[in-house]
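Design request, tokens follow.
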């Protein structure tokens, strides 16, 4: 009778003091660059501020949402709470998670805050569709979840592009691919093709 083979137990990697210090410093630097939003509490379907000084938290929330309008702040928090509700009840963990997602976008004004909130809602819906796809019991359920997942993933990508365009003011950049300087001191700008041909040739410039 052969004895069962014992599985080798992997040894835990113990970081050195230098590695610990480096990791802590990197985390602190990242937190200074992107401060965490205030934590909100949900009690009896009411949202409260988890801080002794409500005014300071309110100001930090406005900063998180890129706004100085208390009405906008209250409305946005209410919408985030509803979007993250669980079976009709407000969920504290989901609300703070969505607020963290908005904070990660670093909105600079109300428009960016609204778009960030929509991105957070679409992300949650995308992950829910991924879970339904993973747990599908038949082809019909899998097809439905896959279609929803693809649409939501494309929507999220579109939202990212919309945010980039809004932040840059919709400006377009023109890139010069090739600059050929010929003998005689003239530069011809264009795309170089084989055989010495040029496409999109511009006027010679000194």
């Amino acid at each position: 009778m052969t004895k069962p083979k014992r599985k080798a137990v992997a040894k835990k990697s113990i970081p050195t003091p230098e590695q610990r210090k480096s990791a802590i410093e990197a985390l602190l630097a990242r937190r200074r660059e992107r401060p965490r939003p205030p934590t909100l509490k949900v009690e009896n379907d009411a949202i409260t501020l988890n801080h002794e000084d409500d005014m300071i938290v309110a100001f930090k929330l406005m900063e998180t949402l890129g706004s100085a309008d208390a009405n906008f702040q209250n409305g946005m928090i209410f919408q985030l709470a509803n979007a993250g509700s669980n079976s009709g009840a407000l969920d504290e963990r989901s609300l703070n998670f969505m607020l963290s997602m908005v904070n990660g976008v670093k909105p600079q004004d109300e428009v960016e805050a609204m778009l960030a909130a929509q991105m957070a809602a679409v992300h949650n819906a995308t992950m829910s569709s991924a879970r339904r796809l993973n747990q599908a019991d038949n082809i019909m359920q899998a097809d439905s979840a896959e279609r929803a997942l693809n649409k939501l993933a494309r929507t999220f990508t579109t939202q990212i592009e919309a945010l980039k365009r809004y932040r840059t003011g919709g400006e377009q950049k023109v890139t010069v691919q090739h600059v050929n300087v010929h003998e005689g001191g003239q530069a011809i700008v264009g795309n170089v093709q084989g055989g010495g041909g040029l496409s999109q040739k511009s006027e010679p410039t000194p």
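Comment from the thread starter after seeing the answer: thanks! Residues 164 and 170 are 8 Å apart (CA to CA).
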